[in-house]
Each structure stands twice: as structure tokens, then as C-alpha cells.
Design brief:
The chain is mainly alpha-helical and about 170 residues long. Helix content is about 70%, strand content about 0%. The longest helix is centred in the N-terminal third of the chain and has 17 residues. It starts with a helix and ends with a helix. This is Pentatricopeptide repeat-containing protein-mitochondrial domain-containing protein. Pfam families: TPR_24. One of its GO terms (molecular function) is mRNA binding. Keywords: Repeat. InterPro entries: Mito_RNA_Proc_CCM1, PPR_rpt, TPR-like_helical_dom_sf, TPR_mt.
């Protein structure tokens, strides 16, 4: 095991998080790089830096950090993609949102209820009706329990897109 083990990783993640909270992204990146070289990083290390970059409008840099995570051989988590996915949805870029979902699946990070809730935020008009069945397919495949919040989001998406038959089928389940 790498020097420092789990305790070292927890310490590094705490330091990176403190740097991000203080908006000192240069120092956060420096700690991430040092920890990566020592083999005491995990997905949380990278995710925390991505969170800080996204909070400061540096989406392109956050994408690079996601690529660095993969290059470092660290398995991505769903959370590794959620911030980037949310940013693309806020930008109204549905195509890039679905590309991120595809990349997420290819990396072995299966979408979960949070992923689906984020995706449902992009379903804002009848023109987005094609997204609803695709999101529903993801929901059916998730291991998470469909909670009240996710169900409400699905119902709202069906109403916004005029998919009353889909809504009726959901309510019959």
C-alpha cells in the first residue's frame, strides 16, 4: 500500500477541501498533484478540486481534472460527473449532457438517482420530450430506491413535455 494509506488520503482530502472552501484552487491543485505522486489520492481528491473549479466558473479545467482522474487509474464515481453534468444542463447543452452520461457509463460509474434528478432538470419544454424515455430507462436501471423527490421530478417532466400517456403508465405502477 502507498505510504500514508487511508489516513494519508483522508488528510489530503481534508486539505484540498479547505483550499477549495477558501477558493485557493492553485494550492488545492498543488496538494492534489503531490498526493497523486505519492499514491494517496482517491476519487474524492479529484472530485473536490472539480467542485471548486466549477464553483469558480472553470468548467474546462474541471473536465481536465476528470481526465486526470482516469489517467491516474482512479475509478470515477457518479459524483465525479454530477457537477459537470449540472453545469452543462445549466448552460442548456443537452447534447453535451448526454455525452457526459455516456462517458460516465463507459467509465463504469453507473447513473444513480442523483444523476437522473440532474438530467430531469433539462426537461423544460415539449421540445425535450425525447429525453424523458431515455431518463426513465436510466431510472429503471439504478440500484437506488426511487424516492418522492425523484418521482415528483419525473411527474413534472412528463407534464412539461405533454407526455400524459407516460405519466399515466407511471402512476399505474
Amino acid at each position: 500500500p502507498a505510504a500514508g494509506g487511508r489516513a494519508g488520503t483522508l488528510l489530503v482530502n481534508t486539505i484540498i477541501d479547505a483550499c477549495v472552501e477558501c477558493a485557493d484552487l492553485v494550492t488545492a491543485r498543488r496538494y492534489l498533484e503531490r498526493a497523486r505522486q505519492r499514491g494517496v489520492v482517491d476519487a474524492v481528491s479529484f472530485n473536490t478540486l472539480m467542485k471548486g473549479l466549477l464553483a469558480n466558473g472553470k468548467e474546462a479545467e474541471a473536465h481536465k481534472v476528470l481526465d486526470e482522474l482516469a489517467a491516474a487509474g482512479v475509478p470515477a464515481t457518479q459524483a465525479s460527473y454530477h457537477g459537470l453534468l449540472h453545469a452543462r444542463i445549466l448552460a442548456g447543452d443537452r447534447r453535451a449532457s448526454w455525452c457526459l452520461v455516456d462517458k460516465m457509463i463507459a467509465a463504469g460509474a453507473r447513473p444513480n438517482a442523483v444523476t437522473c434528478s440532474i438530467l430531469l432538470k433539462m426537461v423544460t419544454s415539449p421540445g425535450h420530450a425525447a429525453d424523458v424515455p431515455r431518463i426513465l430507462n436510466l431510472i429503471e436501471a439504478v440500484d437506488d430506491t426511487v424516492d418522492e423527490v425523484l418521482l415528483t421530478s419525473v411527474l413534472e417532466a412528463c407534464l412539461r413535455t405533454g407526455q400524459l400517456a407516460t405519466l399515466s403508465n407511471l402512476l399505474d405502477r
